[in-house]
Amino acid sequence: MNGARDPDGRHGVPGPAGPADAGAQEPAPEAVPAVDSRLIVREEGFRGYVGEFRRKLRSGELGSLPVVVAVIVIWTVFGSLDSAFLSAQNLSDLSQQIVGTGMIAVGIVFVLLLGEIDLSVGSVSGLCAALFAVLNVINGMNQWLALLVAIAGGAAVGLVQGFFFAKVGVPAFVVTLAGNLAWNGLMLQVLGTSGTVNIPSESVVAELYSTIFESPAAAYLTAAVGVGLFLLASLLDARRRRAARVPYRPLAEIVLRTLVLAAIAFAAAYILNRYQGLPLALLIFLVVLVVLDFVLRRTRYGRQIFAVGGNIEGARRAGISVPFVRMSVFTIAGTMAAVGGVFLAGQIQSASQTSGGGNLLMNVIAAAVIGGTSLFGGRGSVWSALLGALVIGSIQSGMNIMGVSNAVQFMITGAVLLAAVVVDSLSRRSQKAAGRA
């Protein structure tokens, strides 16, 4: 018996029927609304979360898990080899030492989200440190004005490089590689024949790095404010999503996540207070991360960055100004390179011909990638800079305590970077196989 094709193209539907048959047709059942899998998971309780965790592992959605495991392993190994590594003094020093590298790595995160790279951030950081030192120390300019000029210089450099990339069409790799050479040469020109300019310990740059709030209340209050803001933001986000009738985190999950964050924050405050207190540099770094994380995840501009990095053609068709996003991202990278360079200059209290050189570029790129930002664009977080810098800084601190040579440190850091890229590549392949990339 031959069947006719219905309007949806399906076979097996009887041919035209008479009027009597038409009245005998049963009404179509009501469509069952789709239910988001995340809601089902949360209704199942602990078992649902375990299943969801396994699904994410199979599909390559690893998030920050690899870097958290890496930090635990690194601290366990070095702590077992030398108890001085886990001392309050060493961990407090580590929290200050990662700030300069971490600030520059934040800018690299923005660039990597576009699927691009910036090879000039090391030279830009050295140039801006030299600008501040020469303007303030040599020429007597007001230190705050000199600081603003130095940071504005980094932003201008990033804007110029972004223009050549976004408007002229020169690949970012080539633009920033040329910039790496050009800005390093300009730094040498700014420093002049002396080659080194010492920064006084009472300078604003040195004080931004070295100032420590010795009162125990400062560290605990910072931890409490951070946890409180996280809880408030989570509750507001859940209410907003619930009002929009989209999946949201239940109260129990929000409370659990807040308790975990509180345990980490107050443990860090306790360790810092056991030595000297809360470093101002670390506090500034955390504030920068919170602000830029809000920009990336809660603003239209942040969504545009992810859109351009994930699918540039789709972003164009959606009406996003791709050149503007690209130029602005490289401007942010230049600005953060300047801020990081200023902190690094405050750390050693000088600007010299070696500023921004050595393994700085390798470390900031490694920090961003190791922290979980994808080299392929469209996936990452500014908190990657903190986690990655913590991994790099912990490795260097541990090996310095053990007296390992710089050559071995370079090889180990390179191996860790390669491992992070391999994990990123395998994760992306798994997501493609699962239809999520």
UniProtKB/TrEMBL annotation:
Biased composition regions of type Basic and acidic residues, renumbered to the chain: 1-11
Spans annotated as Disordered: 1-32
Keyword ATP-binding in annotation: no
Keyword set includes Membrane: yes
Keyword terms of this UniProt record: Cell inner membrane, Cell membrane, Membrane, Sugar transport, Transmembrane, Transmembrane helix, Transport
One Pfam family linked to the record: BPD_transp_2
Composition bias, Low complexity: 18-32
Membrane topology: Multi-pass membrane protein
Protein origin, superkingdom: Bacteria
Main location: membrane
InterPro entries: ABC_transp_permease
Transmembrane regions: 64-88, 94-114, 121-138, 144-165, 172-192, 212-233, 254-272, 278-296, 324-348, 360-378, 385-402, 408-426
Subcellular location: Cell membrane
Function: Part of the binding-protein-dependent transport system for D-xylose. Probably responsible for the translocation of the substrate across the membrane.
Descriptive protein name: Xylose transport system permease protein XylH
